[in-house]
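ok so i was messing around last nite and threw this chain in just to see what happens. nothing serious, just curious
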Amino acid sequence: MLMRIYRVLGRLCTGFALLAACPAFASPCDAPQPLASIDIPGFYDDPTGYARGIAPLHAYIDRINKAADAGDEACLVDLLDTWASADALMAPINGYQGYYERAWAVTDFSLALMRFKDVERRDTPALKTIKAWLIRLAASTRDAEAINRLHNNLVYWAGLDLVSVGVLTHRADLVDAGLARAREGIRDIGPHGELQRELKRGERALHYHNFALIPLVFTAELANTQGIDLYAENDRAIQRLANLVIRAVQDPGSFDAYSSTPQKLFPWTFASDLAWMEPYYARFHDARVLPLMETRRPFENPRLGGNVTAAWAENPLIKASLIELSNFGNTFD
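result:
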């Protein structure tokens, strides 16, 4: 409702542009200037330069997710259509961080859209433009050697990007490419839930075990709508990784069994980055998980379409959308 009021006020301001008060009513549904590319310093290489460079994209993502959280599909579509019409984020990337940020952003856009019923079936002019743009962006991630060569959590995140766009747009080739990347991650999970490549991250190893788990859980949920049970693969490997992380949230010292290096977590590691617990608990009802979630809800994550608690908890909006997808007759394998 608030965003609708802002849109009306924005139209009034357009008609009475000389009113000094009008700038105060700038609508959150007005998209910021589209970015041709997201080519920024590395997160670890230059933290100050990174924060400055990523700010415009993060501001846009924040508007996207607020529109989704408000249930304002028209606002969300307006925001995405503006950038899609400008073919935003498609210009060449010279560094490496931009490839990661673009994949995360596209995942967020797709999951935000999936919070609205039947959006995958509808093809209004704006939605056609948005879906075509998301397909181009996903294809760029699929072909990005800056990600493909890494064989770590960033590949799993690219997989979620591809699967989310593929499911939304009914592109089997993107779904297949995304599943291949998720399955690489599932094969990487060891007998006790450990990920050897992430153990090499030293003091950030625990953070990156959790960070790697996020895309695997959400990809498994999307794959389930297509009759594919990724949770079962590699002897239920995703659950082994989840068990490792759950134990570490309960007792950070438990990770000493995997690394002798004292661990450092980011403020968001055991906060918004535990958003995977929402769909995981909704599926498995693991009794250990609920008390861990209750003190942290709502989980709001800028890579996962906004308020994950609202979208993915029991009887979520997105669950109804995914049921519709599973009944749509598209099976990918």
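not much to say yet. DSSP finds 15 helices and two strands in the chain.
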